[in-house]
Amino acid sequence: FKAAYTSDIAKMSDDDKSRLSYFLQKNGQGQVETFAELTSYLLGNHRWAAGEMVQNCPASFKCVKEKLGL
User: What's the pTM?
Assistant: First the structure.
């Protein structure tokens, strides 16, 4: 997941990074929050942040789905 997350973040625009800064926290917390948000999307949470993370982090989303066996 870490490699997918790092790859996705590197491709984000500065505007997206600004809007989604909560999910870009340092010391691993951003990764934890991203994994949780993407998991919540798979469980039916389609609020703004979850949808934005799915769009901006496709590799991370794919990894989460694989890890959950979906």
Answer: 0.90
